Amino acid sequence: MARRFEHYTQVGDGAKAVSVGYSTKDRNGYWAIVFVDPIGKRLEKMTKCKVAGKKPDANFFVEAARIIVTAFSTAYPDPKRVTWEEAINKLAPDLREDTLIAYTKSIRILRETLEAERIKPTSPVEITPELASLFARVWLAGTFKRSKASDAKEYKRKPTTLNFYLRQLSAVWNQFIEIGYAKENPWKVVRKAETDKVRKAVPTEEVTAHFFAWIKERYPEWRALHAFVELKALAGCRLKDICVLNSNQVKANRVTWTPEQVKQRDGRSVLLPDELFQSLVSAAGAVYLWQGILDGLGTFRRSKRRKNDGLPSDTVYDVVSNIFREYSDTHPEQPRLNTHALRRRAITLVVAATQNIDQTSQVIGITPACARDYYLDAQRAFQTDDIYRKVAGVLLPKASQTDSEKSPTIPPLNGNKGAQFGTMTNN
Questions:
Q1: Distance between CA atoms of residues 176 and 214, nearest Å
Q2: For the chain, what is the total number of helices (H) and then of strands (E)?
Q3: pLDDT above 70 (res 304)
Q4: What is the pTM for the complete model shown?
Q5: Measured distance CA(104)–CA(98) in Å, rounded
Q6: Is the dihedral of CA 80, 84, 86, 92 positive or negative?
Q7: Which residues fall within 8 angstroms of residue 289, CB to CB, at 6 or more apart?
Q8: Cα-based torsion angle of the residue sequence 179, 182, 183, 188 in order, rounded to the nearest 10 degrees
Q9: Contact yes or no for 9/20 (Cβ under 8 A)
Q10: Fold identical between 84-179 and 205-369?
C-alpha cells in the first residue's frame, strides 16, 4: 500500500501537474518536511518556520511548496559544462564562510592529488567512484611537511585526516547533486580508512588552574588576554566565536552572539559574572571587543613574522592559539592543552552540575549527540565509579540467597533526584 502523507502540494501546470505528498517533523523547534523526489529518493528538508503549536501556520505551507517545487524542477544546466569555480560560486551564497573555506580546500586537495597522477577533471560530474577511490589511496600514501624549508622533515598522512576530507567531499557532492551539478555522490562508495577511536581528554581542574596561573605570571599586565581566556572557559564556545565579538555585543552583564557568528539558528547569549563583565568592558575598543589584545601585541608579544593585512579576529585567533601552544611547549610535564580543551571541560562540568545532557546542549550551544560523542567525559560528569560502588552488590550474582536477597533493589543514586541520567527532572 502506498504511503499516505499529511499534506499535498501541486507541482507543474495543466496535464503535467503532479500532486506531491509530504509529512512534517519537529526538528529542534523548527518544522521540517519529508517527501519523495522524482527519482524515488526520500528527502528531508528544513524550513525557517518555528514550531509554535501542533500544526504549522500558513507561512510554513508556502515555504514547503517552494522547497518541493525546487526539488522537482528539471531546469538544471548540463553538469558537464559547469567548471569547478562555477559550481563553488553557485553554492557560496548559502554557505557559512567557514563551510565555504572547508569545501574549497577539500576540492583543491582533490584536484591537486589527481593532477599529480596526470588526471585533470574539469567538472564535478567527471569524478567517478573509481576516481574517488583512487584519490583516497594516493593521498593517504603521500607525506606532508610542517615547514616550507627544503630540508623540512616529512610526516606520513593520517587516516583520520583522510576520513575528514572524504566527509567534506561527500557533503559538497550532495549539494552539487541538489543543484544539478553532479549526477551521483561518488564518495559514498569509498572505503573509509580504519582509525583508532581515541577520545580527546578533558583537562583536569589542576591542569586548568596551572594554565591560568601561568597566563597571569607570563603576561601579568595583559588584562585583555586574561579576560579573553576567562570568557573562553566560561562560555565553552569555539575559539573563533570568541574572536569575532564586537564591543556592542557585551552589555548588561551579558555577551550575545548573532546567528551568523555561531552555528545556531537563534544565536547565543551568556550571563557574565560582575567581575568578568567589568574586565571585558575595560578591554573593549570603540568597535572591536579585543582591541586590548591587539594594542598589547607590541608590548607583550612582539613578532616580525605577523601579517598586518588580515582581519583583527584572525590575528587574535592566531595569537591565542600560539599562546596555548607556548604553554604546552614550555610545560612538557603537563598534558598538552589547546583552546578546544576548554570547550570539552565546560561541557563536562555543566553536565556534572545538571546531570542532564539536553539542558547542557542548550546552555553551551551544541547538539546533545555531538556533546555526548565528542566532548563529554562521562566518568567525570556522572561519577560512574561511585555508581558502581553502590550497585555492585546488586549486579554481582550470589552463590546462595536468602529470601530478602531474591529481589534486590537498586540503592538510590545521588544527583538528578533519583531520575535517570540524561533526562529532565521536575523541580
A1: 49
A2: 16, 9
A3: no
A4: 0.60
A5: 10
A6: positive
A7: 245, 246, 247, 249, 250, 280, 283
A8: -110
A9: yes
A10: no
- Looking at the DSSP assignment, which residues form a beta bridge with residue 254? 251, 271
Residue 152 host element (H or E):
none
Residue partners of 93: CB distance under 8 A and separation at least 6: none
Q: Which residue has the cell 594554565?
A: 211
Return all residues near 115 (Cβ < 8 A) that are at least 6 apart.
none
* CA 352 – CA 224 distance, rounded (Å): 30
Grid cell digits, residue 286: 570603540
- Cα–Cα distance between 342 and 339 in angstroms, integer? 6
**pLDDT surpassing 80 at residue 250:** yes
| The dihedral sign for the CA sequence 202, 207, 208, 214 | negative
Q: What is the pLDDT of residues 369-394, one digit of tens each?
A: 888 888 888 888 888 787 778 878 78
CA dist 259 and 246 (Å) reads: 14
Q: Compute the distance between CA of residue 426 and CA of residue 287 in angstroms, rounded to an integer.
A: 43
- Grid coordinates representing 300 are 607583550
- Reference 165, options 107, 91, 89; nearest CA is 107
110 sits in which H/E element:
helix 97-116
What is the C-alpha separation between 96 and 102, in angstroms, rounded?
A: 10
Would you identify the CATH topology of the domain 205-369? hpI Integrase; Chain A (1.10.443)
Supply 236's cell numbers: 565553552
- Name the residue with cell 524515488: 40
Question: Which amino acid is located at 281 in the chain?
Answer: V
Alpha-carbon distance 132 to 120, whole Å? 13
| Domain parsing of the chain, residue ranges | 7-74, 84-179, 205-369
Phi, psi of 141 (to 5 degrees): -75, -15
Q: CATH number of the domain at 84-179, please? A: 1.10.150
| 13-17, 25-29, 247-251: range with lowest mean pLDDT | 13-17
Copy the grid coordinates of residue 395.
549486579
Strands 18-27 and 30-36: antiparallel
